[in-house]
Here is the input.
Amino acid sequence: MIPFLADIDPVFKVLAPRPADWLTILPEIAVAGLSLLCLLQAMFLPKALRSLIPITARTGLILVAIMALTNGPWVQSADVASFAGLLRQNLPTDGVRMVFLLSALLTSFLAEGFLRERDAAVADYHHVLLVVTAAFMLLAQSNHFVTFFLALETAAVGLYVLVGYLRRSEASLEAGVKYLVAGGLSSALLLMGIVLVYGALGSAGVADSLNFTQIGKALAAQSAAHTVSPLTLTGIALILGGVAFKLGAFPFHTWIPDVYQGAPTPTTAFLGTASKAAGAFTLVLLATGPFAPIAVKLAPLLAVGAVLTLLAGNLGALATIDVKRTLALSGVSHAGFILAAVTAALVLPGVTAFGYDVEQVVVIYLLAYVIGTFLTAQALVSLPAVEDHRRPQLALRGLLRRSPLLASSLGFGIGSLAGVPPSVGFIAKLLVLTLLVSAKLWWVLGAALIGVAISIHYYFSILREAVVRPTEDSEELAPLEIPSGTRFLIGALTAASIIGGLFVLFGR
Here is the structure.
């Protein structure tokens, strides 16, 4: 199309991609098209028919998920580069793609009733949700810092909107502003780090010092010759700091409690799953990919980060009484588990747990986290009083009498997050602990086990409010009406929590 651009920079070769390249990202194109369809429906459908928009979004996401699971050119068992090396597809990227699709689908179910009760636009929410999902799916396949940064920032802008979506809620608007500030800082760190790596490696003669493959080869050669420059190391540190913001790792986790507490509950669930999955898989992608040649330098840093993240998340959750803040800080501890898994891979390259490599373990952990989070969120989103920050846990009291089904949803969700056998959450944590044992990271293993013990206390304190603690307000004992769709969703997620764990352990 513009031939001379390819002579300026290899990035511009994407202007003339191979036809087969488009097939590799067909699920992403489908989600983006689905977002556009929802927007067109909001523009042209009569108001009485706009209730079809969430149905359209959910149906489309299910169809895309089915397509992504089928054996097509968009599913790759080995590393395949596309778009002149801008993207990379393999089995783990296909797995994390499913994490994003599942998170978006479950968020849609949570959001519809939640937003209607608060007289908020349902159509716009789904449009932005789908844009963010498509961006996250591309982010997981990035093999170049151009696509990496563009996908990440596209998703970030959409998340700013979703966090501050309730314009009549001061808490939601405040959360949106705080997230914007934190996101801007993380983006600045990332961009500064990318510029430093680009400049340092480019001056060393690397043809495309933004390409992950070429960065890895350059760092391998420099590491063998002990010539890795301080400028390159500084850039890598800044990049990992920006990723730590997205993941919610210590010390970049301080924004999480306030943002998660103030955001709409469906957005909180999406932030805690899809956004964390993006940060987690990005960390795995960078640490075991282009930055792997300097694993000796990165491993101690990530090990310390894992321990501090585990302790900060668990101790912080132990000290708060607000449900959403507790779940937010517990998410920080889960980030610590992911950091621990990546550290094990750096200390002992090729390490596996029950036949799963570190990328597969992270995907399994993220899927388990999605199931546990949404089972818990389904119970919370049905209790409007939980949104009242002056009465943090009172709404949970008497939940077992009001709705045994929601109490069961909360119980199975909490059980999976806490790692109670035989839930998939237990299996996911077992895989991470096995990696730590194989890598002989005993002090990280000790911190993880202490974190599990602490988490059982604060997780089950939430459950105790719903099952044990009585309520003095007779109105709160009124039975809750649960739609049939919600009943089916709770049943499906509960079954997935139990069967999924057994399948991971014995289906290999």
Notes: The CA atoms of residues 424 and 503 lie 9 Å apart. Confidence is low (pLDDT under 50) at residues 1-5, 385-392.
